[in-house]
Fold:
Amino acid sequence: MTSIYNAFGYAIDWQERYRLIKAAGFDGVMLWWSDGFGRGPGYREDPERARNAGLVVENFHAPVQWQNDLSLNNQAGESLFELYSQCVRDCAEYQAPALVIHLPNDEFPLNHLGMERLERLVDLAGELGVKLAMENIFNTRNLCKALDSFPSLGLCYDSCHFANDPEAPDLLRMYGKRLMALHLHDNGGGRGQHQLPFDGDIDWTRVMGEIGEAGYSGSISLEPMNWGYEDMDIKEFLRLAYERAVKLKNIGSR
Structure:
């Protein structure tokens, strides 16, 4: 199975976007679950739109703007917990099997309150049958603490965040058996992230080899943006993205 992040750029009708994703060959989509970062209103209609196009909804991605507030003993911290809780409930309502969450960056260590809130999220997700996948993004001390403390949590492995984080341990070796989601993109381009695979410096033979060795059998999921590809037609962008996804899948199955 191959999937792609839904909000990868281009101003286009959303139902048409999903039709084009399916036409390019992808099986599924990962949905950005908020109206932020340019997504705009109507995101709650995306599960139905995607399924109408014949796509599987792989997961929702929780908002990230307030990720560092999880341990705060104030209204901001409580508001973030309630936001994540609602995202879990939305996964159950819209039949999305998993929620991807950013834990705080490591300069905001998870304290007792942060871990207590995380435990409540784990319990809620367990009650509703939703998987929680923690994504690596300059937060690996918090990430390892959470994964070591809660066995039901999974890892969302982001290839570019890992490649750009000089302090990250070998997450695939440590937690590869707990992979629940992938964000595969390269670190080329002017922003050093969210490029199509093979357009940056990531060693994809190593990455896909470790993913294969971990026994991962889920979707090969890309998280590119059209940054630097703006002159490329959306159909060509998706054609190229799908070609790269298949190439990664073939490397991982060797």
Notes: The longest helix spans residues 75-94.
